[in-house]
Write a structure and sequence with these properties.
The protein is an alpha+beta fold and 554 residues long. It contains 19 helices and 15 strands.
Length: 554
């Protein structure tokens, strides 16, 4: 019944409001005259403003440099599509003359500067095969007599061609009618004209400025006629007018004095106004942070990452969403489970260390799956086990740990892991590399700490004892941290009969021996320092043989 009702509504639905007969009329209403008399400001002359050029260039380059991928969903899992003409467009040539990165850069520059980026979609048997960028100057959205939206395109030869909406890729910005975006260059033409006029004023100021660099005062006792004055000035310019002579000392005779003339307040204000133009154009009109515009006055290590995040969220994401929506509609036909994506993660996230730490915490707390992290980093998912959630112990599937009390002590934790497994006791030699890695971590820390302490003690002898007390106060915890995971694995492989060793007691004994060995009398430090010499067989023997022996005695 619901299916029949949907067909009925589709056949009988009628739009009650009338469509705009002239799409984009509101956006074009701002094209009225020049803001400053005698100075023409249009889409092309505006690019001569350094701040305008920089802002458009930054956004266009960012949007064209991030990965553009085509995905589909199969059995609830995202899979990258690599076959077909649309998939080729995502990775190589959008037409025989242009790579997809150049296409995105061109269209992004058009969209960011003029509010609209157009491209003709060439189709073969209904499927898109090529994308051809169009100059927004020659594209005019219009409506047919029946009210259908079309694009009237003026050809280089003067003729016009009309393309239907489905054959025009239209990447637009803010549009009050939802059809034609407003041109930022047009709306900002007064600010741009001010910047261009300031540049022109600067050229006139410094090329035709008659303001002297200084004044030479001649006493009344010296009489200059026109010939003598011109000869004196000629000699002065020859000696001191050349830039290579700047800063050379001057000898003045017969009571002559020199008075320099500093920059005028008007010229100083001119420089401040020029600097303000960067802030006005970049962050306000285009949403590009000042540091990316070349203005680093207020940029610090603490706020730069936050500014980049805001730039990604408030500037790049809206443009990327508009692009993806147009691709999904015009190129993919809004097919179910097929979509395109611009991956902005690399631009919006922090450095690799911060991201790695965040992902590690999320995976170990079951907040994310490894496949989720792979998708965020635009990497391939894991074939098996990647969609499982894990918790730290160290690590196991979430379901396997749900029946275990995670707050038990280490002995109960190892016993639970051993009893819950279905594996029979097997040889633990496979863990030898893991044991050696854990032991090597402890030895590296001890060796590095000893070398640093010796270097400091060579300057401040009394610092050795202070360092030894401070280091041994926390070293036992580090030993437990390094050996705990491999001890759990060892117990699990030995079987349910294995008891977890007393790691804390073992670590305490080792630290006491370390402290005794390096508590050197009279601050006499040996020439050669080395960490504790541990052998794998000795460590395993002390940890597990003593446990089993104590168990048998009981």
């Amino acid at each position: 019944m619901a299916f029949l009702q949907s067909i009925f509504h589709a056949l009988t639905a009628r739009r009650l409001s009338q469509p705009d007969a002239a799409p984009g009329a509101g956006a074009r209403a701002y094209y009225t005259g020049n803001p400053i008399k005698g100075m023409r400001v249009d889409d092309h002359s505006s690019l001569a403003h350094s701040a305008v050029w920089r802002a458009i260039n930054v956004i266009a380059n960012n949007l064209s440099s991030v990965p553009w991928n085509y995905y589909t969903e199969i059995n609830g899992r995202r899979v990258r599509v690599t076959e077909g003409r649309v998939a080729e467009m995502h990775k190589s040539m959008v037409n025989p003359e242009m790579h997809e990165t150049t296409f995105r850069q061109t269209l992004a520059a058009h969209a960011v500067s003029r509010g609209n980026g157009y491209a003709e979609i060439e189709r073969f048997k209904g499927e898109p095969v090529n994308l051809w960028p169009l100059d927004p100057t020659f594209v005019n959205p219009a409506r047919t007599e029946s009210g259908r939206l079309v694009y009237d395109i003026r050809q280089p030869g003067g003729s016009n061609v009309v393309l239907p909406i489905e054959n025009v890729f239209h990447w637009k910005g803010l549009a009050f009618d939802g059809l034609v975006g407003y041109s930022p260059l047009t709306l900002a033409r007064k600010a741009i004209a001010l910047g261009l006029s300031m540049e022109q004023h600067g050229i006139s100021l410094f090329s035709n400025d008659a303001t002297p660099g200084g004044i030479i005062t001649v006493p009344d006792s010296i009489v200059f006629d026109q010939v003598n004055e011109e000869a004196f000035l000629t000699q002065w310019k020859e000696k001191h007018g050349n830039p290579s002579n700047k800063g050379n000392p001057v000898v003045l005779r017969d009571g002559m004095t020199w008075q320099s003339i500093s920059i005028s307040p008007e010229n100083a204000q001119f420089l401040e106004t020029r600097k303000f133009q960067v802030t006005d154009i970049g962050p306000r009109w285009f949403g590009v942070p000042a540091p990316l515009m070349g203005d680093n006055d207020k940029a610090t290590f603490n706020n730069f990452e936050q500014m980049m995040t805001m730039y990604g969220i408030h500037t790049l994401v809206p443009w990327a969403c508009a692009y993806e929506s147009e691709v999904n509609w015009k190129l993919l036909g809004n097919r179910s489970k097929h979509y395109s994506k611009l991956n902005l993660n690399g631009l919006m996230r922090g450095d690799m260390a911060a991201r790695g730490e965040f992902y590690t915490k999320m995976i170990r707390s079951a907040g994310m799956t490894p496949d989720t992290v792979a998708r965020l980093e635009d990497e391939d998912i894991i074939d098996e086990g990647g969609d499982m959630r894990y918790i730290s112990r160290d690590l196991m599937p979430l379901g396997a740990a749900s029946t275990t009390d995670l707050n038990t002590n280490m002995a109960n934790e190892a016993r639970s892991a051993a009893s819950s497994t279905t594996l029979a006791p097997v040889s633990t030699s496979a863990l030898d590399d893991v044991w050696m890695d854990a032991i090597a971590r402890i030895q590296r820390k001890e060796g590095n700490a000893l070398r640093r302490a010796k270097e400091k003690a060579s300057r401040i002898p009394e610092s050795w004892g202070e360092w030894l007390n401070k280091f041994t106060a926390t070293h036992a915890d580090f030993i437990v941290q390094c050996l705990k995971p491999v001890c759990i694995a060892e117990c699990t492989m030995r079987g349910p009969q294995c008891k977890f060793p007393q790691l804390s007691a073992f670590a305490t004994e080792e630290v006491a021996a370390f402290k005794e060995a390096w508590a050197i009398a009279n601050n006499h430090i040996p020439h050669v320092l080395s960490a504790t010499e541990w052998s794998l067989s000795e460590v395993k023997s002390r940890l597990f043989r003593e446990v089993n022996q104590n168990d048998s005695n009981e």
